[in-house]
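Posted in: Structural Biology > Protein-Ligand Complexes

Title: Requesting predicted complex, adenosine monophosphate in pocket

I'd be grateful if someone could produce the C-alpha cells for the following input. Sequence and ligand are given below.
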Amino acid sequence: MQIILFGSPGVGKGTQAKILSSKLNIPHISTGDILRQAVKDKTPLGIEAQKIMDKGNLVPDEVMFGIIKETLQKPECKKGFILDGYPRSRAQAVSLDKMFEELNFGSVCLLAITADEEELVKRLANRRACRVCHNIFSYSDIKDTDTCPSCGAKNSFYLRDDDTEKVIRHRMEVYKSNTAPVLEYYQKLDKVIFINGDAPVEQVTLNILSALDKKMKKQAATSA
Ligand code: AMP
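-- Reply #1 --
Done. Output follows.
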C-alpha cells in the first residue's frame, strides 16, 4: 500500500509516519528529512535548500521531482511506503501520479490529518528534534533528560530553524496557498481519508489503522 500522509505543518505526519512504518513494515519517506540530511552533508542540494527551508518556503518542484523519483525506484519501496511531506504542490501531485502509474503502484491513499491551527503553532514552537534519529519530541517530555528516548543519542535535541513562531506562521500560509490544493486533487480521485489529529498520538494511530483496514476490506469486496 502507498500511503501519503498529508496535513498542515505540525499536525503529526512525521510522528504517525514513524509509528506506521514500524507497524506496517514499509519505509517512511520524509522529504524534509532527506533535505535536512543534504543540508547536514553540505551537498550542492543541501546548500541550495537550506536558505529556502530556513525561510519556510518550498524547495522548487523540479528539484523535488528528482529526489522523489530516485527514492521511489529503490527496491525497498516495491511493497509500499509512507510519504511524509510530499506532494506539497499541485504540480508535485500530478507528477507523482504519473510516477505511480509508471511504477505500477495501484493502491494509493491520502490520509489527511486535520487539527486546530493555533494548537499547531504552539505544538511546533514546543517541539524538539533529535539530530541522530530525526524523531520529534514535545519539549515538556525531554526537558529533564539529555538522552534521546528513541535512539539513546546524547545531547542531540535541537529546535529546528524553521520552528520559530515567525517562520511557523509563514509555513502555515505556504501550506494554505500551495499545498492545500493537493487535497482537492486527490479528493477528485476519491483517494482521501480524513483523520482527526487533535487526539492523543496513540488514538490518532488507532484511527488511521482502522481507516486503512476499512479501505482494504472495501477494496477486497469490490475486486472479489
Ligand atoms: P518538513 O520536515 O516536511 O516540515 O519540511 C521542512 C521543509 O523542507 C519545508 O518547509 C520545505 O522548505 C522543505 N520541503 C520538504 N518537503 C518539500 C516538498 N515536497 N516540496 C518543497 N519543499 C519541501
